[in-house]
């Protein structure tokens, strides 16, 4: 299994807040070492590898994870979903609720 994390780099060169939060969540769960590769989606650069992967997989948010297992590729947009489905981590309802970002809720 090979896991690629696609992170967004803002125009000012900083890492997006959600990407920072995802990294912290992976580290706190002891899963950071399971990420094999980090690819950057550079804001304003559609030719950056991360932007190309975003377009290819039709994912419009960062971070996201591409899990390659043999010939199969799965995409995850949530650290908790990745932890639960690929690492058999227990995720409580409280953790799921806390992971909801108000910026992702449509009105």
Characterise this structure.
Strand 1 (2-9), helix 1 and strand 2 form a beta-alpha-beta unit. The protein has one domain (2-104): Glutaredoxin (3-Layer(aba) Sandwich). By secondary structure, it is α+β, with helices and mostly antiparallel strands. The protein is globular, with a radius of gyration of 14 Å. The model has no long low-confidence stretch (mean pLDDT 87). 34% of the residues lie in helices and 23% in strands.
Task: Record keyword descriptors for this entry.
single chain, 4 helices, 4 strands, Glutaredoxin, 4-stranded mixed β-sheet, alpha+beta, 107 residues
Summarize, please.
By secondary structure, the protein is of the alpha+beta class. The protein has one domain: Glutaredoxin. The chain has helices spanning 17-28, 49-57, 79-87, 93-98; strands at residues 2-9, 37-42, 64-69, 72-76.
Write the layout of secondary structure elements.
Layout: E1 2-9, H1 17-28, E2 37-42, H2 49-57, E3 64-69, E4 72-76, H3 79-87, H4 93-98
Parallel strand pairs: 1-2
Antiparallel strand pairs: 1-3, 3-4
């Amino acid at each position: 299994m090979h896991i690629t994390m696609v992170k967004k780099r803002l125009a000012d060169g900083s890492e997006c807040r959600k990407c920072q939060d995802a990294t912290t969540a992976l580290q706190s769960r002891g899963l950071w070492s399971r990420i094999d590769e980090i690819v950057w989606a550079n804001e304003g650069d559609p030719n950056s590898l991360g932007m190309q992967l975003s377009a290819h997989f039709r994912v419009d948010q960062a971070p996201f994870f591409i899990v390659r297992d043999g010939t199969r590729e799965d995409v995850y947009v949530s650290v908790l979903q990745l932890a639960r489905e690929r690492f058999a981590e227990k995720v409580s309802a409280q953790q799921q609720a806390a992971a909801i970002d108000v910026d992702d809720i449509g009105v």
